[in-house]
Amino acid sequence: MTDQLSRVFAALADPTRRDMVARLSEGDHTVNDLAAPYDVSLQAVSKHLKVLEDAGLVTRTREAQRRPVHLEAEVFDLMTKWIERYRQQAEERFARLDAVLARMQDDDNPSYTEKEGTAS
Amino acid sequence: MTDQLSRVFAALADPTRRDMVARLSEGDHTVNDLAAPYDVSLQAVSKHLKVLEDAGLVTRTREAQRRPVHLEAEVFDLMTKWIERYRQQAEERFARLDAVLARMQDDDNPSYTEKEGTAS
DNA sequence: CGCGTTGTCAACCATCTGGTTGAACAACCT
DNA sequence: AGGTTGTTCAACCAGATGGTTGACAACGCG
């Protein structure tokens, strides 16, 4: 799992981390702040943040003794690009398939009309 | 990891599985066919397909002794929706932040101009 | 019918993951 | 200097993951 795209997908595969991202999308938070709603230790949250950081989804700056966590939205584009690429490809294929099926139906209809083969 | 979104993200966190999806976006394949390029056992590929199937990304139908694997592109929408929601939210926040910073600069400039605080 | 082809199931193994607790570090406030 | 607050590091544990090999089920073909 060395490439960033894998790390991003893996990071978002965890519901707690997705929720953190959701909350961070509304503004920066400190670690304590982020941990509050979850029923796990602060250290567990710190680990989750490390996963998000390694994926490039968040950055942590230092501000006095706090370490505010900041969402980096650009990384989302990496995923969106990957997804859209293959989704579109698949959809184009469906379109072609539909066309082929339509042609087949046109070609074969004459021989089928003698039976009841045109039923859906 | 009970919810589908988690399963979809987790499924795509593996480079081999992403490559399978990429190839399936060009058309259906049999398991043997899919396994060919990878340097792993057929059973490992079968496991990967189970993960993709559990995520709802592919379906397998039976066709004689072959089991053609078919990509279900609709599930991508689940991810895209999630991603876009928070990306947009984050971007709107940036826009607001920019506006706030611009206002702050206007308000505070008079007091800062005495020092060299306006540096980037 | 028996046989090869195609693919899955089962058991096992090493490594990763998400959680825990306890200790440590860092920066601020007396 | 010492205490408080905020966060991370280290060691450990149970369960998931990705891989292996061996057995076997399902189907079409000669």
Automatic annotation (TrEMBL), chains A, B:
Q: PROSITE patterns, per this entry?
A: HTH_ARSR_2
Q: Which residues form the HTH arsR-type domain?
A: 1-90
Task: Check the record and name the Pfam families matching this protein.
Answer: HTH_20 (PF12840)
Q: Which InterPro entries match?
A: ArsR-like_HTH, HTH_ArsR_DNA-bd_dom, WH-like_DNA-bd_sf, WH_DNA-bd_sf
What CDD domains does this protein map onto? HTH_ARSR (cd00090)
Q: Which NCBIfam families match?
A: HTH_metalloreg
Q: In its UniProt entry, what is this protein called?
A: Metalloregulator ArsR/SmtB family transcription factor
What organism is recorded for this protein? Nocardioides pini
